[in-house]
Amino acid sequence: MNLLLILFAIAGHATLWITLVNRLHARPWPEQWLRSLRHVHDAFLLGFPPILLLGAGLMGPRLLLDGKWSDAFWLWHVLFGICWLGGIRLIYVSARHMLTRNPAQLSKEEAHFIDIAAEFGRRPVDEGPYQFMAKLPLNEQFRVQVTQKTLALKNLPAELDGLTIWHISDWHFSGTIERTFFERVVMEMNRKPADLVCFTGDLIDRMKCVDWLESTLGSIQASEARFFILGNHDWNKQPDPIRQRLTDLGWIDVSSRSMEYEVRGIQIVIGGDETPWMGTRPDFSMHDNNVFRLLMSHTPDNFDFARQQSVDLMLAGHTHGGQVQLPLIGPVYSPSKHGCKYSSGTFFEAPTLMHVSRGLAGIHPLRWRCPPEITRLTLKRG
Questions:
Q1: 253 with 292, same domain?
Q2: DSSP E strand boundaries for 154-243
Q3: Quick one: which of 36, 172, 277, 381 has the most CB atoms within 10 Å?
């Protein structure tokens, strides 16, 4: 029993650190600060279990031998109490993950996979940061899920019934994953073009990869328009040249503003939100309340803002679905003030329906039980 209690404390300790890291990564802190935080996190996560097993289990109160809890120094009681609270939180978030269901507005969902590594006969890995992760066994980074979702939206105008949107996010060009990987994904998208394409941020991790844009995002087809915003990784680089290059390729930058745009002969309002890293929030109040409202936000943390602005559909990314999802527990690392609550999927809180993409890549190219995705949304009046 004492061993189980110590292991529960170790799990709780890890949960508390992960909770802290997730929340702080939602803040607009410089990358070097966050990197230092991750180093501290790694040290405590690896160093705490042997300290607890040795210090409390085999030495001190000797809880794994013949010791009793009543003989333990009071600081041990405080430490274990805090860690057990973390364990209780772990039980809560695991239960929440298992009990979460798709909203009724998601009326249909189907998917297929393209195994790009199998097609190429190799993993398309080049010289870049964290390339060892891309080569790890069981890594699903190169098995892309192509998802098609039908969303029923109450305020969708009849003229827009059947409107299609490719929602893509978090491509993270760093040089680690070859450009050919992204070009293959674009080929898949162009096999079934959509009316709109919406990219919700985190595009460039190394500025030399800006030259990739023409053969990747620049080649994506859309019958109506292609819209984009940037994310925190772009903020850490040079966002202005990235914006300019995308604009030159025909993409429309909607960051920090709301604008009316004619689709199928009627006006919709589309806005972009890159806060808390860049710019300001778009103001939807200047537009007619009866016009369909679409918000592109890099992070799902702006969900409450979208609801306040009576946004009908919000598209977000940033969290990568956690990149690694554990059985029963679900995603672990999700840089959000909500932790893993909105790590990926479809969520409805009146009056807004939000879709969060798992993204296509990451500066850490590791995926397990959480494959990268591109998503084709079909909007239906309902």
A1: yes
A2: 163-168, 194-200, 222-229
A3: 172
Residues 172 and 361 sit within 8 Å (Cβ to Cβ): yes
- 95 and 116 share a domain? no
- Tokens linked to 78: 């405080």
Cis peptide, bond prior to residue 137, ω within 30 of zero: no
> Residue type for 157, please?
P
**Environment class of 334 (CB within 10 Å of its CB; exposed 0-12, middle 13-18, buried 19+):** buried
Q: Are residues 53 and 187 in the same domain?
A: no
Domains: count for the chain: 2
Nearest alpha carbon to residue 340 among 12, 8, 26: 26
Q: Is the peptide bond before 351 cis (omega within 30 degrees of 0)?
A: yes
**19 and 128 co-located in one domain:** no
User: Among candidates 146, 182, 139, 152, which has minimal Cα distance to 166?
Assistant: 146
Torsion 114-115-116-119 (CA) sign: negative
- Give the tens place of pLDDT for each residue, 206-233: 999 999 999 999 999 999 999 999 999 9
Spell out the alpha helix ranges (H) of 229-361: 232-235, 239-248, 303-308
Average pLDDT value for the chain: 96
Neighbours of 104 (CB within 10 A): 9
**Do 55 and 86 reside in the same domain of the chain?**
yes
The range of the structural domain enclosing residue 8 comes to 2-99
Show which of 49, 82, 99 is a domain's final residue. 99
CA gap 71, 83 in Å, rounded: 19
| C-beta atoms surrounding 285 within 10 Å | 10
Indicate if 84 and 204 belong to the same structural domain: no
- 130 shares a domain with 34: no
Q: How many CA atoms lie within 13 A of 190 on its CB side?
A: 13
**123-172 pLDDT, tens digit each:** 999 999 999 999 999 999 999 999 999 999 999 999 999 999 999 999 99
Number of neighbouring beta carbons within 10 Å of residue 33: 11
Query: Radius of gyration over alpha carbons of the chain, in Å?
Result: 23
343 exposure class (CB count in 10 Å sphere: 0-12, 13-18, 19+): buried
- Decide which of 49, 66, 99 is a domain's last residue: 99
Domain match, 10 and 157 both = no
pLDDT at 1 over 90: no
